[in-house]
Amino acid sequence: MPATTSSSSPARIRRIGLFGGSFDPVHVGHRQLAECALAQLGLDELRWVVAGQPWQKERARELAPAADRAAMVALAIADEPRFRLERCELDRSGPSYTIDTVDQLQARPDAAGAQWFLLLGQDQYANLATWHRWPELLQRVELAVAARDGQPPRTSAALAAVPHRLSVLAMPPVAVSSTALRTALQGGASARSLVPDRLAAAVAQYVERRGLYHSTPARPG
Ligand code: ATP
Q1: From the Swiss-Prot or TrEMBL record, what is one GO molecular function term (predicted)?
Q2: ipTM above 0.95, yes or no
Q3: What pTM did the predictor assign?
Q4: Ligand 1 pocket member 23 (CB < 6 A)
Q5: 181 within a domain of the structure (yes/no)
Q6: What is the rounded distance in angstroms from the CA atom of residue 38 to the CA atom of residue 54?
Q7: What residue spans of the chain are helical by DSSP H?
Q8: What residues of the chain score a pLDDT lower than 50?
Q9: How many structural domains is the chain composed of?
Q10: Does the residue 4 lie in any domain?
Q11: DSSP three-state, residue 29
Q12: Is residue 41 part of a domain?
């Protein structure tokens, strides 16, 4: 009987990115950051984690319903098979803490042995030491940070005191924010500038059909 040979090359480790946000609404800056991360980190998949109850933002204003924010993200990522909409924060109650999401996703069987990256713009990286259980988060994921508003990735003093893995993403500046878009939409602007051209029409139609932002009431007080 002939000897059998088996391949001894180890299985490639899957590289999974997490990209969290309120996405209220999703926009071209989000898409650009995600595309840069796919290419520069060699990700096998990138999960767009729509915050159910963004603990940093909910007190300041009323968000669009989570189901609408998720539906807009689904439309904005539909053309890229490595992008996935992650709904786990929508299904949890309470504030959407990223460390809870990491706990949940890393415990799934399909995640065994994967390498995890957390994508952030500089504004969020600067705030990271205010996040729930942040030192633990730093042990569980590698950070991938992009410049924003002309601010390059810069490590805060609190973060510098704790070892962490960091990749800096090269990204052409995209001067857009959800806040600016909401303001423009409330002022009657077209929703077509939200995401790249090929996807804009679908997201814009969704915004218009659902009457989002034009009529968003400000939260009193
Ligand atoms: P808002 O204006 O409501 O605060 P936002 O535009 O910052 O919203 P989020 O959904 O809070 O959007 O952002 C999700 C992530 O995307 C964050 O890490 C944020 O830093 C990053 N991000 C958003 N817009 C840009 C941009 N134009 N350039 C680089 N990073 C961005």
Answers
A1: nucleotidyltransferase activity
A2: yes
A3: 0.90
A4: yes
A5: yes
A6: 25
A7: 28-41, 66-76, 88-91, 98-106, 122-127, 134-140, 157-160, 178-186, 197-210
A8: 1-6, 216-221
A9: 1
A10: no
A11: helix
A12: yes
Q: Which of 130, 151, 178 to mutate to test the pocket of ligand 1 (most atoms within 8 A of CB)?
A: 178
Instruction: Please report, for the domain that includes residue 204, its CATH number.
Output: 3.40.50.620
Range of the domain at 170: 15-210
Q: Is residue 1 part of a domain?
A: no
Report how far apart, in Å, the C-alpha atoms of 205 and of each of 29, 75, 83 are: 19, 10, 21
pLDDT value at residue 220:
39
Residue 119 phi/psi, 5° resolution? -90, 140
Q: What is the pLDDT of residues 102-137, one digit of tens each?
A: 999 999 998 889 999 999 999 999 999 999 999 999
Place of tokens 């990138």: 46
Q: What are φ and ψ of residue 13, in 5° steps?
A: -75, 130
User: Would you mind telling me the total number of residues written for the chain in this entry?
Assistant: 221
> Cβ(17)–Cβ(143) under 8 Å?
no
Mutate which of 98, 122, 148 for ligand 1? The one with the most ligand atoms within 8 Å of its CB, which is 148
Give distance in angstroms: CA of 9 to centre of ligand 1: 40
Q: Are 144 and 17 in contact (CB under 8 A)?
A: yes
